Amino acid sequence: MSERFSKPCVLENDANAAAWGEKWAGAGKEVKSLVMLTLGTGVGGGIVIDNKLWRGANNVAAEIGHMVIQTDGPPCNCGNRGCVEVYASATGMVRLFKEVLKAGASSSLKVSDEITAKMINEAAIHGDKVSLDVIAETGRYLGIALVNIMHVLNPEMIVLSGGMIGSGQLLMDPIRKVTTQRAFEASYQDTKIVFSQLGNDAGIIGAAGCLLKELEISA
After folding, report:
1. 113 labelled catalytic
2. Do residues 197 and 27 touch, judged by C-beta distance below 8 A?
3. pLDDT > 80? residue 5
4. Number of domains into which the chain is organized
5. Cα(28)–Cα(56) distance, rounded to whole angstroms?
6. What is residue 104's three-state secondary structure?
7. In what order do the strands lie in the sheet with 157-161?
8. Could you point out which of 25, 132, 142, 217 has its C-alpha 20 to 30 Å from the C-alpha of 106?
9. Mind listing the pLDDT tens digit for each residue in 25-78?
């Protein structure tokens, strides 16, 4: 691409760029290793190890959303079943909410194709029990994914980003409870779990940082 445009260019995965943004200019500035999860309609990821993005042998590393956490779970868009994305994404939260209501639970929200994770979050803030329970269940599944990340990579920090972090402590509290209960003591004590500092700008900032790092290496 650099030859085509006559300018230095770098092509990078969006979640990788966001992870590098948080490492370069956000929550992870003081650490050498972090894992970032982007929590939206799906679940993306990025990994930084020893101040370098880890892309894997074929540039397909950090597909955290497709880590299987339930072998007989619901089907995922990737073709597998029981992926993290099925349980811990905004789409998964809405699916669970509708299932709970169809099972007979009562909520201020009604079963409708218009229901969104944002609506569930707002209802939870106003005390809707079903919404609170669904966010807590989403946090528990996300916590299981984080325990696996801790045990495999032992990062200094895990950064959570995307629209779902609007749930704040309603989402973070069950995450911390699960990681405390299930992770090795050294893992949950030494791994910081934080929300993104850069928000939606993480990818843009990280893309610029990836280019600057490439120019630095090439110089």
Report:
1. no
2. yes
3. no
4. 1
5. 21
6. coil
7. 52-53, 43-49, 34-39, 157-161, 192-195
8. 142
9. 999 999 999 999 999 999 999 999 999 999 999 999 999 999 999 999 999 999
Considering the domain boundaries, does residue 175 fall inside one?
A: yes
104-149 confidence digits (pLDDT tens): 999 999 888 799 999 999 999 999 999 999 999 999 999 999 999 9
Instruction: Give the span between the Cα atoms of 2 and 213, in whole angstroms.
Output: 15
Q: Can you give the CATH number for the domain in which 80 is found?
A: 3.30.420.40
Confirm whether 4 is domain-assigned: no
Q: Do residues 21 and 203 make contact, with C-beta atoms less than 8 angstroms apart?
A: yes
CA dihedral of 7, 8, 11, 12, whole degrees rounded to 10: -140
> What are the tokens at 135?
């966010």
Asked whether residue 9 is domain-assigned, the answer is no
Amino acid at residue number 11: L
Residue 119 in tokens: 């609506």
At 17, list the tokens: 């760029």
The pLDDT assigned to 219 comes to 41
Q: Which helix (H) or strand (E) is 134 found in, with range?
A: helix 129-153
Distance CA 101, CA 91 (A): 16
Domain that holds residue 120: 14-208
pTM of the complete model beyond 0.85: yes
Q: Is residue 198 part of a domain?
A: yes
